[in-house]
Every structure is written in C-alpha cells, then in structure tokens.
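Quick start: read one record
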Amino acid sequence: MLGRLGTKWDPFKTLIAAILSARARDEVTEVIAEQLFNKYPDCNSLANANPAAVKDIIHGIGFFNAKTKNIIAAAKMICNEFNGKVPANREQLMLIHGVGRKVANCVLVYSFGQDVIPVDIHVHRISNRLGWVKTKTPKQTEEKLLQLVPKTHWQLLNDTFVSHGKTICLPLSPKCSVCPVNKYCKRVDVIKSR
C-alpha cells in the first residue's frame, strides 16, 4: 500500500491513507487518497471539512461512513492534541481515531523510518504459509516475526510480503508453480505436489 523503500512519506498523508486502506484494495485506496489530498492537503483542512464532502470523495472505498468520521476525527486530534504533527511513537498514534497497531506501524516505518513490522493480511498469510509462524492473529504474527526476523529486515518485510501477496501468494489461488520460495513453503497442498 504505502511503501517505496528508502522514501519517507508525509506522516499526515500516510496516516490518513493507512486508515482508508483498512479492508480496501491498495489500488482503490491510492486513487481515493490522492483525490482526498488534492482537496484536503493537511490536518487543518481535513479537520474542518464538511463530512458530506469527504464522503463524496471516499464513497468508492469500503466502510466510507465510518472512515469519514475516523479521518476527520484523526485530523482534529492531530491539530488539537499534537500541535499539527503526527506523533512518532506507537502508543500516541494508537490514541488517534481509526488507528490500530497495523496503521501505527505503517506510519512508523514509511514516514519515520523506524524498525517495526506492520502486519497486514499479506504478512500474516505468507508468514503462516511459509511456516515461519503458526499464529491466529496479526498481533501474534508480529510478536513472532520480531523474534525470528533480523532487525535489519523489519522495515523491508511488509513491502516485500505485500508485493508477493498481491502477485504470487494470493489468498485463494496462489501461483505456487512460479513462486521463487515454493521449495520453502509449508503449505500442505504445495508439499504434496512437490
């Protein structure tokens, strides 16, 4: 969704785009976020936005009613409680409306260059398929990956797994025959076909 390695993204735009990305395809999120930022480029403009106008822009994304409330409330919090600056630590980020652990970690990696692992559906799925972890929740996956993956690779993991998960290791019909890490995969039907 957000990553171009080595590029630090505007923290406010990263935060709002990450909130919008929940349960939405990255391709849709990117287009809608760009339209939103064309009209509301900073926390002040979004904090003072008419909710109906914001809904008109983001209506093509899932859960647009809740996301409209969340992004406006998040902008207000940043303006009023953080002096217009997105905080650079997880605990403060998670106080913001619509921000959970994954969104906070995305902001920390992509805007502040911090060593954390954002765990989205791709990272969770691929880590389990490879047999790196046996976890039920993204938080459990993150905890295990922090122990398993060398810290020098934490910032790369989300971007790498998202790319792999969108092109090869698809949720329902993974392209195992062209997967470069197929021989390391612990997926049961892959093991049987080797």
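The chain is about 55% helix and 0% strand.
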